Amino acid sequence: MFNQPKRPAILIAGALAGAINCRATGAAAPVADHHEFDAVLEAPFHPGADDAAPVIKLHFSEPGARARRVAWRLALLAPDGRRLRLWRGSGRLRGGALDVRLPWSIRPAAAAPAGVYQLQLEADTRSRQPLRQRWDIAIGQPPALAMPAFAMLPTAHAPRTVSPAPDALPYTVYYGNLHSQTSHSDGGGALNDCHGAQAPQSAPFGPADAYDYARRHGLDFLMTSEHNHMYDGSEGSAPDADPARAKALYRQGLASAADYSAAHPGFLAIYGMEWGVISNGGHLNILNSPELLGWERNAGGDLLADTFTAKGDYDALYKLMRQRGWLGQFNHPKSNQFRAGGRGLGYSADGDAAMALCEVMNSSAFSVNATETEGQRSNYEEVCRQALEAGYHVAFSSNQDNHCANWGAAYSNRTAVLIPDGDALSAVSLLDAVRARRVFATMDRQAQLVMTANGHLMGERFSNTGALTLEVHYAHAAGRSVAALAIIAGTPGRKNSASALPGAGASTTLTPAPGEHFYYARLTQDDGKILWSAPVWVTQLPLTTAQR
What we know:
By secondary structure, the protein is of the alpha+beta class. It has helices at 16-19, 31-34, 108-111, 207-216, 243-263, 314-324, 349-354, 381-390, 427-435, and strands spanning 9-13, 38-44, 55-61, 69-77, 83-92, 97-103, 115-125, 131-139, 171-177, 221-227, 268-275, 284-286, 293-294, 307-308, 328-330, 355-363, 377-379, 395-399, 414-420, 439-442, 447-453, 456-457, 461-465, 468-476, 482-490, 499-500, 507-510, 515-525, 530-532, 536-541. It starts with 8 loop residues before the first strand and ends in a 7-residue tail after the last strand.
């Protein structure tokens, strides 16, 4: 039976969606590679909206942990950041899990006026880095924010039928999922018998099945991103693995995507890899590599890949990706992962050239929901902000990391790309859009969010002198309204610099200090679903004497 909550729910997960992708038993897989501490917060966006007594649910897990103690803190924050209430506690993981239920008793009169507030979760074990995340929650009935009129941009299913106005954005929006697995690694499990990651290459459904399912479900594109270290059919290094077979399977996947796209114009099938491991590593997708990368060898010392890449060596991987012109996406990121220059999320010029996307939100990797109502969802905005502060030029993506045979159907979230009107959806046009960061992340496939800055489209990098006007454009096919809007401003190269601009709205004018800046929009709908624009990166130049 599918999980179908009665009302929209918010879930915050430290690393739920995909962070435990490799939990099936492997012959030689180190446990540390595949297990990590997860924390999930579940609460209704509108607590007390019906007669039921609302409950906040906390779930903590770490497979393999034996009675490890978890300490947690949950704070209710006002829109200005003031802490209104604090819950705290601790407990031991039993069988690798701990569940906590907290009755919700906040009402507007007891807390603050009606509006959109935030719940902030912090949780840790002694052996793991604390997880810190926030998510919006409504108290009372927040008034709808006034937004300027913005006509929906055309989509694949609602193409432009009249000539655009002279000032209209000349783009078509395509919605898809850039993170999923099939039977080529640990995905593809049948919905009636899928309980987590599948044993590598054991499930019934492969890439062609995934593309067909996603297309029939209304997606415009799907990437099947297979774990690069499972092409030998194991999580570890199978001693008798045939390197020719491993490499042939990767080429078969590339051919399957090309063949499916050619046979179904209007749908783009993408095949690639999810490189790396979780602990002391980090998963990232490589969107356009024709080569299988790896570090594992069989008993004879044969490399089980086309090209050697050392496990955990992100400096070298970024250099290779930049040389080859490959584009990457940080998957379900954590701040202690992707070590470059000796630092977690450390800046690398090669990495900055290669990494174009950061997953800001995922639905549960192991969901069997096929009605877009999955309750378990994960939020990574804080870590993606850290990547921006480190100096990475990444746009936000929102994917599903499907391991079961429900590709794109678990929830309504999508990664959306803007492709110039008149250009067909293709591998070239999609990669061009990703390279230009013409991307927004959305929890609602019927919604659109575009930000401009002095006429520059989100994703652009430009120099500016004097005033800077940020314009947020939002539209929803079914007429949803806006409950909250934030413009996040930060400084590349400066840690903890990102924060919401006070008083920002749909049109915000400011004069930045000379130097480097980034800005992006975060919009919350009246149903709690969130959209994130791509950032703009601004080099603010000082005024000359004549300009003053």
